[in-house]
Write a structure and sequence with these properties.
The structure is a single chain. The protein is α/β, with parallel strands linked by helices. The protein has 2 domains: 8-66, DNA polymerase, domain 1; 70-342, Aldolase class I (TIM Barrel). It contains 14 helices and 14 strands. The longest helix is centred in the middle third of the chain and has 15 residues, at 137-151. The protein starts with 7 loop residues before the first strand and ends with a helix. The protein binds S-adenosyl-L-homocysteine (SAH) and iron/sulfur cluster.
């Protein structure tokens, strides 16, 4: 490889891919798992630290590969909860956000898959900042490994793809990151502790169901009615509810998992009695649970159109809504608004400082 050529991001490769690279370069196949063991289990940051790797291979690695993807810019801790927001910068100076949400039983890491998001949901700060680019596999997985370095190895028990971006529009990189997280060899996070949240890209949901990954799936529903959902989430025009529901029923059937519906409560828009009736029907049509999310303020963004008019349903009304659904035997959880004070709660993630200067 000539010195001018771009180095390969080591953390973008699955074990099978690195084995192929090594074999093609005349190296022993088993060296690939040794190298990845250093990277993922010992969290090394340089090739020199890989003490059981022969020197010539280490030289080849530092010539052709890079271990560096993101760098930690800052950590903010919520004053009301233990939630932490990590800001990471990419090599091309974008800033992405990763959120650690601790509770009694688990530590959940919420990771990003894109800088911004192309889908423009009207209630979401990430959508409002627009789309910059997809994250590479290395940048997706390193949010986990760099954060694990901060909080302590093995402390992170769960991963949710609920940060910035729509994971299923960065499909290949999302899949490779899942392969790395669930790889037996890395022994990291089991598939039933990983959740992908999607706004509903029906054909990709089917592709994910047909992959061997079988992680949990959450669908951002927000309204059981096409007309309202399209106003809130323009992607609903391309994949209307009937098509998305078919896809998630298929996902649930093939993976034998329960689907989570995410539902952000918006006053007068999706908290009416007719919503309860339609939601009840929809939730009963497959193994599912409903995750009700209080609407987090996006007032830190510049708002126009419907985004300006959105208001949160009061906690009192959320409780009534939830009770009526429970009376209909629907499983409902209310999500805490963790990290609201550091803009780390659902849908508040936006690196507006950078988007202004881009
Ligand atoms: N793009 C994916 C995952 C990231 S968003 C998706 O849309 O599913 C994670 C969750 O936060 C989604 O359910 C999203 O609808 C919700 N969300 C977005 N903005 C929000 C806000 N302002 N308040 C509460 N939840 C919000
Ligand atoms: Fe993108 Fe999800 Fe935000 Fe919609 S809610 S704009 S899909 S990040």
């Amino acid at each position: 490889m000539s010195s001018g050529r771009k180095k390969i991001e080591l953390k973008s490769l699955t074990l099978a891919q690195l084995e192929k690279h090594f074999v093609a370069a005349g190296e022993k196949k088993f060296r690939a798992s040794q190298v990845l063991n250093w990277v993922y289990n010992n969290l090394v940051t340089s090739f020199e630290e890989m003490s059981n790797i022969p020197k010539p291979l280490r030289i080849m690695l530092s010539r052709d590969y890079t271990l560096k993807t993101l760098s930690l810019k800052s950590v903010q801790t919520s004053s009301t909860t233990e939630t932490k927001k990590y800001l990471y910068s990419t090599k091309d100076n974008h800033v992405i956000e990763t959120v650690l949400i601790p509770d009694e039983k688990r530590n959940t890491l919420c990771i990003s898959t894109q800088v911004g998001c192309p889908l423009d949901c009207k209630f979401c700060a990430t959508g409002l900042m627009g789309f910059k680019r997809n994250l590479t596999v290395g940048e997706i997985v390193d949010q986990y490994f760099l954060s694990a370095k901060e909080v302590g190895k093995d402390k992170i028990t769960n991963i949710v793809y609920m940060g910035m971006g729509e994971p299923l529009t960065n499909f290949d990189n999302t899949i490779s990151s899942l392969e790395i997280f669930t790889d037996q060899h890395n022994n990291r996070v089991s598939r039933n502790r990983i959740t992908i949240s999607t706004s509903g890209i029906a054909d990709k949901i089917i592709e994910l169901a047909d992959s061997p990954l079988r992680v949990k799936l959450a669908l951002s529903l927000h309204s059981p009615f096409d007309e309202i959902r399209t106003r809130l989430m323009p992607i609903n025009k391309r994949y209307p509810l009937a098509e998305t529901m078919e896809a998630i029923k298929y996902y649930s059937r093939i993976t034998a998992t329960r689907i989570t519906f995410e539902y952000t409560m918006l006053k007068g828009i999706n908290d009416r009695d007719e919503d309860i009736r339609a939601l009840t029907k929809l939730c009963r049509s497959l193994p599912s649970k409903l995750n009700v999310i209080p609407f987090n303020s996006i007032a830190h963004m510049s708002l126009k159109g419907i985004s300006k008019e959105l208001e949160p349903t009061s906690l009192y009304d959320i409780n009534l809504f939830v009770q009526k659904l429970r009376d209909n035997n629907i499983t409902v959880m209310v999500r805490d608004t963790q990290g609201d004070d550091i803009a780390a709660a659902c849908g508040q993630l936006a690196t507006h400082n950078l988007s202004k200067t881009d």
